[in-house]
Design brief:
With about 160 residues, the chain is α+β, with helices and mostly antiparallel strands. The chain has helices spanning about 1-25, 35-45, 45-50; strands at about 75, 80-85, 90, 100, 105-110, 120-125, 130-135, 145-150, 155. The chain has 3 helices and 9 strands.
Length: about 160
């Protein structure tokens, strides 16, 4: 009987999370750059659309910026808003590009209760594109680890700030 109750309670927990997530995602946020899915599909690759617009995740250790350490600026692949400076990037061995800081005002933070856990999603504040998640386990003084999909980024070596 205890096992049956436990299974019922776990099932309710996951169904409640699913309902809460659906409720939260139906509210439309307003961004400076707004496009329909059709318009986004015309300017993004399939992988970029999956990550940025459908909140997907690329496979770990496959992204072009995971082991990329040139000097410059990382921008949103959807709207080209500058997000991260190369000086804030560090080797995390998590399989995705990691930064300990973002350019001020460029990131929007949103609670993410998907997959049965509570995390903080990071979005481009300019277009709402899904970038990844932020964690409080970074090894630097900030204690932050912005775990970002390479597919959500472009890099500009010329945009390096001194």
């Amino acid at each position: 009987m205890k096992k049956l109750f436990l299974l019922f309670a776990i099932g309710m927990l996951f169904s409640c999370n699913t309902v809460a997530q659906k409720t939260k995602t139906t509210k439309k946020d307003v961004y400076k750059v707004n496009k329909t899915d059709e318009e986004w599909r015309r300017v993004l690759t399939d992988e970029q659309f999956y990550v940025l617009r459908e909140k997907g995740t690329e496979r770990p250790h496959t992204g072009k910026y995971n082991l990329h350490f040139e000097k410059g600026t990382y921008a949103c692949a959807a709207c080209d808003a500058q997000l991260f400076e190369s000086g804030d990037k560090f080797m995390s061995d998590c399989g995705w590009p990691s930064f300990d800081n973002a350019i001020e005002g460029t990131i929007k933070y949103k609670e993410d209760r998907s997959l049965g856990m509570i995390r903080t999603e990071i979005l481009c504040a300019n277009c709402g594109g899904h970038l990844g998640h932020i964690f409080n386990d970074g090894p630097t003084a900030t204690g932050k680890r912005f775990c970002v999909n390479s597919a959500s980024l472009n890099f500009d070596a010329k945009a390096e700030k001194n």
